[in-house]
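=== Structure Prediction Worksheet ===
Name of assembly: unnamed complex
Input type: mixed (protein and possibly other molecules)
Chain count: two
Listed entries:
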Amino acid sequence: MLVKASGTLLALLICVGLYAQQAVTGTIRSVNGEPLGGATVKVKGTQKTVIADASGAFSIEAGIGSFLVISYVGYQDQEVKVTGESLTISLTSTASLADEVVVIGYQSVRKKDLTGAVGVIDPGTANKNTSNSVAESIQGLTPGVTVRNTGQPGGGAKIDIRGAGTFANNNPLYIIDGMYSDATPDFNPADIETIQILKDASAAAIYGSRAANGVIIITTKKGKKGPPSFSGSIKAGIQGVHNRYDMMNAQEYRTLATQLHEAGGLPVPTSISTEFDPSINTDWQKEFLRTGAIGDYNLSASGSLKKLNYFISANHFNNKGPVIDNSFSRTGFRINTNIRHGRFNIGENVLFSWTKEDPIASSGVGVNPFVDMISMPPVVALRGSRYESAENPEGWGIGLNNAYLNTLTANVPALQRLDQFEQRNFKIRGNAFVEFTIADGFFYKFNFGIEKTMDRGDGIRMPGTVRQGTPSPNNNEIGRFRSRGEFQSTLLEHTLNYDKVIGDHRIGAVAGVSMQRFDHPVDRINQIGSNPEVLDRYKEISNFIGYLGRVNYSYQDKYLTSLTFRRDGSSKFSNNNRWGNFPSASVAWRISKEKFWNVDAVNDLKIRASYGSLGNAEFLNAWMYYAVINPFPRAVFGPNSTEQVGAIVTQLANTDLRWERKNTTNLGIEASFLNNALSFSADYFIAKTKDVLVDLPISLTTGNAGGNPAVNAASIQNKGIELALTYRSKRTANFKWDATVNFTRIRNKVLAFGNESTKYTQIGDARTELGRSIGEWYVLKTDGIFQSQAEVDAHRGKTGELLQPWARPGDIRYVDVDDDGTLDLDKDRHYAGSPWADWESGLILNMQYKQFSFSMQWYAVVGNQLYNRPRYTVDRMDLNTNFRKGANFWTPENQSNEWPRAAIGAPDQGIQYNVLPQSDRWLENGSYLRLRNIEVAYNIPQTSLQRIGFKSASVYLSGQNLLTLTNYTGLDPDIVGVNIFERGLDNGQYPALRMVSAGLRFTY
Amino acid sequence: MKTLINICLAGLLLTGAGSCKKYTDLDIENPNRKDESNFWKTGEDALQGINAVYGNFYRNGSPGSRWTPFYFDIRSDDGYSTSPWNELRSVGALNITQYSFEVNYDTWWHHYRGVYRSNQVISNVPSIAMDENLKKRYVAEAKFLRAVYYYNLVTIWGNIPLILEPSLPADKPAQSSPEQVWTQIEKDLAEAATDLPATYTGEEIGRATKGAAYALLGRAHLQQKEYQQAADALEWLISGEGQSLYDLMPNYADNFMHTTENNKESVFEIQFKMRAENSGEDGPTSNVGTSRSPFFAPPGHGFNDANMRRWVVAEFLKEETAAGGRDPRLAVTALYDSTDERGPDFTQVYGGSFTSKNYNEDITKRVWYRKYLNDYFRLNEFEVFNGPINFRLIRFADVLLMYAEALNGLGQTGDAYQYVDRVRVRAGLRPLSVAMPGMTQAQFLKQLEHERIMELTGESLRWNDLARWGYFDDNNKLAELKARDPEFENFELGRNKYMPIPQTEIDINPNLVQNQGW
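=== Predicted Assembly ===
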């Protein structure tokens, strides 16, 4: 839209005034220094108006002492007193301004005309976070959007728009410059001009079956008319895991481990008795973690050459991860151009990016890096000659399976060194379009989008064992792995748009067809030692066709409506279930425009309602609707052990897979008060998702192997409330501030399972049951610790039988939840908490004082229960692991209500019950309040900049995740979960990182 | 569709890219894999299908591989686990609380995978137009293999779903009674015995034979104490048409090495091969060896997860050979400080003397199961996860002892002596008819218990022997086990005879009922 504005509006000077006054000149720029060609300059109290030229310059006749009112779409109005000198005016962007235009897919509408739920994110705020991905950068910035971070370099964040609408892939659709895509870490957040989030069905319906999880529409920056303007930024910082488990040192471990071995009747390992070596005191967290660093460099140029507008950017992002041998880097170039000639507008946006990732190695059997780094005993040396063997030539410290030392914990620093893998991707992503104006307000557009990736993965696994009981892989030879993939997605779209204002009637319409093809061949090549290479070639292909149409209509800006229809077909379904129709409708009423409305304090009041149906098949890969023959089984026969080829179905399939369908009702209200200083919006929604597609676990008796088959498993409902309140202070000469608070509360519920006989599904310790939330914790209920035999004897069920006849003093007391008189590991489980937050909230605060600006983002999650698996691993104490400082176990002399009886080896049933994983002992409140970002910036005064030719420059200092208030004892409460059914499981997740960075932004 | 193609063409003209149908076709052929619409069409497909059933033997939880010995040997009174992995230990200690832990889960799962694959062959091959003899053979092989899986399932878990058709994803079968499962096992084996060939040649050696089907049928009947049917089935190998095919190997140790596989004592072997492999299942380089041995080997060469009770050694030392020496089977069965009777300085542990291992006092007292260890060629090395030694699921010595037990059960104790004698004489012992003539039926059975320990310890038969002999149903007999293996203090009558069904299965399938007491 800005392109249009600068492209079509000429530098006109219209003088309507009658008084001969002096010419006042000046330039208008955004606070970022971009010239605002097309901005309107009006002499206050008159009709005298001029429009700034492409470089933002203007000249107007005005008397000294009079005021000029400067306005521009998307920016706050500003009044300036005429002093007679040349004026330099910088306008501040605003998200609340009523004339702001938002892109809603194939069309743009004025924000005030929206009838659906759309979130608009200020990329400036988002970019204050140093992030791997767009998703990560927008955490807490808009209601209804839940972002959970993995922290991992090159790792994407998980994003839920309005809760978990589906079971499996809950990622929203990304539309980047009109291309269906995703904002993977190869995408540079600095290139973003706008981000809109389409949350409800009516807003997203134009994307039909792709949009059930919401849509994030990103437009990248476009060239501005005028001479070249350069802008750039440099950022450098350090990052790290902000928290550590406080684990025992070698002496402390020695004392407790000795007692635990003795309690289990096992010989005390000589590593902590006769052969104890005080010089070994390994801090495994220190060996595994390090201080990471980031560097982020951006340079861009924008301008025009005759009719050609261009935006060019280059970016390099480098992240040395906070774990040894773990890094990510990205280099990208973007060229966006467009040219207008007569009835044609032709343009392209293209990104070339190179990424390189060295991930954390966790391929070893039984290896979980963030658990192993705390559970490895400190008496194990990182390396030593004692550990050397044919299987472990470099002598990495591990359990030795002998009298010296036994532990099943992995040496993860060793694995990081032995297992080297590097993923390099080269990607071209972009689109080209031709717009042809047929008549005023009526144009045709052809859009061609392409995303092509060349992926190279190269791995080498050196011989060496990193865990007792797990041999050096590949028969102790060097294992090599290569993958060569090529992903191509091609989009062809034709649309016709019609926009017209006829008197009080405003009409906007679009109709079109969209076709997309995905081609993804991958070769995986394995080689063990000098054996021949083994190639596994696979090619995934799918096609997608959609017909789309939408009409927006408003009368006097008072009554607004929007009707959308989309029909989609996908090759991922069988012939019978291929097509789906996805309609939606929405209405809005701007009450404040009614004549009877005369409440002065309320500037704007609008209510909205929408209903729509969206589809989803993102979970599916090609050909999942039928079972294939696995050609790899082999059978050995004969005196020479000849391998004969086998082939059979190993993975079952559901043949009647059909579209997942989400029906959403949305009610919203928007209001602004006090001359638009205060704005408020609220939305209430009910979303029912039918036939949710997921790979629900099936009975093992089916004999299925190689992954659970996809199935239309269930129907779920999400209900939610989203609130947002923004206040923007009046600008005084030196000071202004604004603040936004948002609030989200979402409840989900399972309405039905696809199979009538299914009442619930259980994965791990979380159960998803009809009528309840997804993945609630379903575990045994503990009730303290027996302090005496009398207490054991008193713990009886209703029949009078002992409930835990095997228990001894010091054992955990379990509750006979179903009160049937016996303790049953199955039937005495109960619902012990939900992984879903009661509510989430974000607070954004911006202040500007003279040349200084200050901003903060806070984020709160309240009321969810997390399962702390790392703590389970070290607190169970029946295995030889390290222990948390202060850990203890119950003895008659050392009675405790926190630590039960324990022993390594678990010699009796009582101890077996004390270490049960399916117990509420491992659940913790996951609530937290976090200072997500804090930034202080100094804008260097223009007077000092002009001498060196800079238009603007600022330096800043920024801190991320500096403060987290929580009772959760794990590394970080921002948990992604293992899958949606175990959403609250901290399985040793890569924690969100703390980062401090400093940087410089400038325009030239 | 035509308009669509026109629209598409307009787009392609503008971009100059590819053909149009490419973008508009929603019927895309899968270039990677066949499916059931173009498989099960030829004899070659049928052969690949049955081969894939055998291919399921290479999973950890499949019969004769990594985990089943923990159920049949370690859980019984001659074994115990010292694994640092508490859950694995609890299988042997009879106090399992994690019903879904890997071992119980995989064993259940991998057995049902074998059932599913067998069912596919049995259901799909009959309608293929192909060589009728081969067709019959393939189906008979599948029936034999299905019976192998169900035999383990019904003896480990007792109450299990009996599935005879290819599975569908939503299947949630209820359990059948053990009797129904046994009936099906017998039916499958009887049909297999009819259609299977007595022998194979060349590259086909190792497939299920008529003798294998009869032997397993005999084992199934004997386990139910159906002595007449057991004797009838076993007879085929001993005195029937198959008698010329089977005999004992002169050297007892030949039954547990990869260099003497598929010999005349073999009735059915699970065929393993050692070659480079990647972990992963049914992939291009998946394992075709067995990972059993690391779990059974002593420290330094394996994980020492499994140990033999020392009373077994004492049992061996009760009777000398006819020549006045030690029973040669002891050294093949047990690895301990005196596997060589001259003591630890001479006892070889993977190429080094027992003494040179410097084991501490605790470990010095241990005994390890030696059968199927690769200790005769992994000299001074760690064990392998892709071991080559075929697992002898049924060997002729067992057939002879089973036959003797059946005859004794029928009251033909006198006739039964000769078959025990064959087994004893091979080991150099005096014939039983000489050493202990004129035993009563009960005495003979008691002696058979001893003979089976001597001959078969460590071959995953002990648990079912104890079950068959009533040790799990009677407190007096249970007391004998407790005396030999203190872990049986955890054994509860009515509970521990069967393992708990994995809790995940109960959670997914509401038609399943957990076994009694768990």
